[in-house]
């Protein structure tokens, strides 16, 4: 089998999918796209590197899924509708079976969200996947980090800490935890539905407290989080609070949405959670100040062992 | 000095530049952009890896320049106006001086073309730079690969073979050749002015014959190129034709535009070349068929030693 770069691109092109607004997809010098009138563009770029963002032994299809999921999560955090993406693949060598597995995961998630792969390139090097995703949003409807106000409730979707607990138990984590690490669920529909409700939002990728800190800095506010309120999965609930709390508060890789909203919206958010089948949990409040404090069950300040993941 | 990821991002953000249509740049989950009404988007993604796309000893500022230049060259080949880009940087470690040098080169070229860095990320790993560039074009004005017609002239901008000759003479190439390898000039203005003139176009990155082959396949035509007509720089002209011809015809890394146009446009193209100060050379013609043939000075078929660069 000839495994030259052009065959590889042709192989990817044949599986890339279709949208009516893609005038030219993979195969020219660049893609040509027709954005709908009156929409703004939302653009994000996130890279996954082997051994840094996923264990080396992760299945190809899970790597494909996750490399798109982390970008869709950023679009979700902006309230955007996914539209198009590019994929820059650095591969240590030619491995058609690996590539097919990778595309299985990547494209399954792409199709689920109507996002089409329109370009990219392949280079030889250590395994790394750089994705740029482009979404669409109506003017004034984007969810930003800088709109939180003192008195807002702080909410989070889904459950926290599962991915961190899976890494802790590596290489043999319980399947339910491992699924959260390998195949995070970007909260795309939730993000779009939060427009007009949330004052500020972001996705939880580096750990709740670290990410909420970014939101608070952007909004010039502080926050108080009640540790006992952090949503916990059945799989994680078997762990007791000291260890579990650190995974939930600062573990990272959750890809849930954290957002703030007026207490007036509590009922609307409960209805939205029920409609989407996505748990939404009120975990604290925005306050005047500039610090994010976590409170334990006695109301005392609680400090996690580490304050979020940084790559450097 | 604290060299955490967030400081690194803050450092890049402070230097990223401004455009009125960037509603939110670096710093939120994603950038928020306001495209002008009635335009199409042109999107391309190209990665540079150390040791593959540039010699390991290349200066940081030249790597920065080149990583954007190869993407701008793709926008140029579509006739697009550059607008926004993302940058995914894989760095082996923290090196603020290297990063500043990289940004010097990247942002100097960005500013020259009015393109603004709106997002991206940094990861730890072997040096690699993945850029996605987004441009704008009026409907129907994009230069594609699939419009060449039998009877068209084949043109190329600038000169060919300099970068390949520089690599051949590595690590001590003549400065003029090395400049072409390290700091290619994307032909952005030329590309935009070719709308309405060129029938088909692409940029020469993998070698003239290989790239022209892509254009011919997309257009279902063949081409004849006269080797003696390939434009040569003063620095390269000191080499005689057998070696020089291979660099010019199949060396790669030229980042010139190759395009086809009706013979009726010869005068208009001569005037455009003079106006832009960019040499445009007629190097052959499009013919019926499906092959790209290079002819030597006697009119005989000529075969380069290698038919273009592939990464796999």
Give a quick set of tags describing it.
homodimer; 312 residues; alpha+beta; 13 strands; disordered C terminus
Topology:
Two copies of one chain form a homodimer.
Chain A: H1 5-14, E1 22-24, E2 31-33, E3 40-49, H2 60-77, E4 81-91, H3 96-113, E5 116-124, E6 128-137, E7 153-157, H4 162-168, H5 175-182, H6 188-193, E8 198-204, H7 208-219, E9 222-226, H8 241-250, E10 256-261, H9 266-276, E11 280-287, E12 292-295, E13 301-302
Parallel strand pairs in A: 4-5, 9-12
Antiparallel strand pairs in A: 1-2, 3-6, 4-6, 7-10, 7-11, 8-10, 9-11, 12-13
Note down, in words, how this protein is organized:
The structure is a homodimer of 312-residue chains. Chain A is an alpha+beta fold and 312 residues long. Chain A is 32% helix and 27% strand. At the A-B interface, α1, β2, β3, α2 and β4 of A face α1, β2, β3, α2 and β4 of B. β3 of chain A pairs antiparallel with β2 of chain B, so a sheet runs across the interface.
